[in-house]
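Support reply, case 0932

Customer input (verbatim):
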Amino acid sequence: MEIAAVLGEFLTLFVMAFALGMDAFSVGLGMGLIQLRLKQIFSIGLIIGLFHMWMPLLGMVIGGYLSSQLGVIATYIGGGLLLLLGLQMIISSFKNDDKRMITPEGFGLFIFALSVSLDSFSVGLSLGIYGAKTIITIFMFGIVSMFLTWVGLLLGRKVQAWFGKYSEALGGSILFAFGIKLLFPL
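Our regenerated output:
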């Protein structure tokens, strides 16, 4: 039965990492419309992957501290944060502003990576409160977001960005569902 629990947690973390990576994927689609060299695409994905490891780690450390201080109430706070984050992603996917265009070089790359990984901090905070396994979580978030960023950038080179808004809404829906799961455990 313990193997099933470990596989269940692994699958849950993978789906959550995929949901968070969809934001990087959708922004990568838009960025991919700029003619980027493959070397640039590689480094952008790597940087975003590192940010998706560092930000949830920071959130998990803070969340773990809050969990030991607040107990059961902290689980509800974590669920509420996931609900708000998912809702924010869903709402932002329906906005029609194309002002997110940042040049993915130098300081612009830092801003770009930070902006698509801020939601990972909030999720890390929630997971730290919930007590998720740190190493597995940060590596899962980093690898999945790096891969999805690469896919988004490469697809953006090939096609128009008409696909991007739907992926952000899907990612927000998944986070919203995990927030409900935390608030109303079976």
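We compared this against your earlier run and they match. Two observations from our side: The first helix runs from residue 2 to 32. The radius of gyration is 16 Å. Please reopen the case if you see a mismatch on your end.
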